[in-house]
């Protein structure tokens, strides 16, 4: 029982040997839900659930298989069919995992949505995707109801826990039959839809196939130092609603039959180290902001079982790498990817030297290069980071965005929109973003959605949002606001605008500074010159 590794080179092999021997093996028929739980020994631990009081419950792969079958049957019973989108507005939990697995098995499409989102952000995504149903918690129910009303899709609302009347109860769906026929999905069938950051307008939904899991495996196995090893236990503080939490941690770990830890607790540096020690976590995906918080607070623990840690989203630098070696007892492997094509470059400290500031080398199976303005591969000079296809990790397409999908590619190359350099040894170095995306706490935030929210305030005439440096978070949003005639700027109004965004979008999208300005610098065609705003 179990699934094969993607990387089959023998231990001790060089990077070049691993790269040259690698070959994709993507079967015609493949289902993420089946591959993650049904093929593993039913008595093996699959999910370790730690509640707020510290009580630990171990859920076996057999239980996950049974519950996900019941959930798939339950969804079918309320009218969800193959290809339908099902939103998941639930933080890390057993219910989140069951929902994902059941949706995949049914052949429907999982639509993970962060609990941080406000009603406007949820409504846009639920409406754009035409979600048939949405799973949520009692704590998120009020804004989900508002979002469904705004979206106007009539999505059925499934609520976890107890006490919510007038909605479909999650537990009722789990009373459905535990027998579920073998799914007939092929590798190219849609499996999950994750919305990007909306850097140049509304957020775009990146639709991924079941094969995307296979496409993630080489990077996953590489970043976590020849994963899996005997006794591995996986954990991440990242929300499973993001590509990082879902596909850099939960799903590939389950594919390999290793238990995943989930804890109902707000992130705290010392708590995180204590949790990893208590649960004997061996491999962890820790976003850069979390690592910086650990370092800033002086958090430490002398009884960790960590053998591998991975991070991505921004370069750690020499000092942070040294901190990881001192406190975590290992070299943190950095990696690179994006929602549309994830885990395509990175480091494996046991195989080749990590160069501080570099995001590593192309992961075996992925051809990552730098293209100049004419689309030619260049070495030693700046250009756009691109990935050559076909590649199983690539998204199928942007949801309902054929023009955006077309613009994402240049021939066989997927264009990342990021600027970088490849050195003569094949190491890749991130330089900047082409699209002005804001990278805060590991989240890629598009200014467009924040600007749209600010423009919804009755006293705002124009606005623009940029990212400014922050020692802990990497970047935070800063808004420049032009008020309507007759409106006077004030600290009270600035706080009111912050509150306006906070109640409509996610907490990490709230501008940390609002500057009132008479006019915005623009090009002759009316586009805002963000580079000039950065100089103010």
UniProtKB/TrEMBL annotation:
Start and end residues of each AMP-binding enzyme C-terminal domain: 449-527
Gene3D superfamilies in the record: 3.30.300.30, N-terminal domain of ligase-like
Enzyme Commission numbers on file: 6.2.1.1
Keyword S-adenosyl-L-methionine: no
A Pfam match: AMP-binding
MF terms (GO), sorted A to Z: acetate-CoA ligase activity; ATP binding; fatty acid ligase activity; fatty-acyl-CoA synthase activity
Domain AMP-dependent synthetase/ligase, chain residue ranges per copy: 51-399
Keyword ATP-binding: yes
GO BP annotation list: acyl-CoA metabolic process; fatty acid biosynthetic process
Keywords from the UniProt entry: ATP-binding, Ligase, Nucleotide-binding
Top-level enzyme category: ligase
Similarity field: Belongs to the ATP-dependent AMP-binding enzyme family.
PANTHER family noted in UniProt: ACYL-COA SYNTHETASE MEDIUM CHAIN FAMILY MEMBER 3 (PTHR43605:SF10), ACYL-COENZYME A SYNTHETASE (PTHR43605)
Listed name of the protein: Acetyl-CoA synthetase
Source species of the chain: hydrothermal vent metagenome
């Amino acid at each position: 029982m179990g699934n094969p590794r993607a990387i089959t080179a023998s231990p001790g092999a060089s990077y070049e040997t691993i790269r040259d021997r690698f070959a994709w093996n993507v079967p015609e028929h493949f289902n993420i839900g089946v591959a993650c739980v049904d093929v593993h020994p039913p008595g093996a631990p699959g999910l370790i659930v730690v509640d707020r009081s510290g009580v630990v419950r171990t859920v076996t792969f057999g239980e996950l298989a049974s519950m996900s079958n019941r959930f798939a049957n339950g969804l079918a019973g309320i009218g969800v069919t193959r290809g339908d989108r099902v939103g998941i507005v639930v933080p890390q939990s057993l219910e989140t995992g069951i929902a994902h697995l059941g949706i995949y098995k049914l052949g429907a499409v999982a639509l993970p949505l962060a609990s941080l989102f406000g009603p406007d952000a949820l409504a846009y995504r639920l409406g754009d995707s035409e979600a048939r149903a949405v799973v949520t918690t009692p704590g998120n129910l009020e804004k989900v109801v508002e979002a469904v009303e705004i979206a106007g899709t009539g999505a059925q609302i499934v609520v976890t826990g107890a006490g919510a009347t007038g909605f479909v109860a999650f537990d009722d769906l789990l009373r459905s039959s535990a027998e579920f026929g073998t799914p007939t999905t092929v590798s190219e069938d849609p499996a999950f839809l994750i919305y990007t950051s909306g850097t140049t307008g509304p957020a775009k939904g990146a639709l991924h196939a079941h094969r995307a899991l296979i496409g993630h495996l080489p990077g996953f196995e590489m970043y976590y130092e020849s994963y899996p090893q005997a006794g591995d236990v996986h954990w991440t503080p990242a929300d499973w609603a993001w590509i990082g939490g879902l596909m850099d941690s939960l799903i590939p770990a389950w594919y390999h039959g290793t238990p995943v830890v989930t804890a109902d607790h707000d992130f705290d540096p010392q708590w995180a180290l204590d949790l990893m020690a208590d649960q004997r976590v061996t491999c962890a995906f820790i976003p850069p902001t979390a690592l910086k918080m650990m370092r800033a607070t002086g958090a430490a623990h002398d009884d960790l079982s960590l053998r591998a840690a991975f991070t991505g989203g921004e370069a750690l630098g020499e000092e942070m790498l040294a901190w990881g070696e001192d406190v975590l007892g290992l070299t943190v492997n950095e990696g690179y990817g994006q929602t549309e094509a994830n885990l395509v470059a990175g480091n494996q400290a046991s195989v080749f030297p990590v160069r501080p500031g570099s995001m590593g080398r192309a992961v075996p199976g992925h051809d990552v290069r730098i293209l100049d303005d004419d689309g030619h591969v260049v070495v030693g000079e700046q250009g756009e980071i691109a990935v050559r296809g076909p590649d199983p990790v690539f998204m199928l397409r942007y949801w309902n965005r054929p023009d955006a999908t077309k613009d994402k590619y240049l021939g066989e190359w997927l264009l990342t929109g990021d600027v970088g350099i490849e050195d003569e040894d094949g190491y890749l170095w991130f330089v900047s973003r082409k699209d002005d995306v804001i990278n805060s706490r590991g989240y890629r935030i598009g200014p467009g959605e924040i600007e749209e929210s600010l423009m919804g305030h009755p006293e705002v005439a124009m606005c623009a949002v940029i990212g400014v440096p922050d020692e802990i978070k990497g970047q935070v949003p800063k808004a420049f606001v032009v008020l309507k005639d007759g409106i006077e700027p004030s600290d009270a109004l600035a706080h009111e605008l912050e509150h306006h965004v906070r109640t409509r979008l996610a907490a990490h999208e709230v501008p940390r500074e609002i500057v009132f300005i008479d006019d915005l610098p623009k090009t002759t065609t009316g586009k805002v010159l963000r580079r000039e705003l950065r100089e103010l």
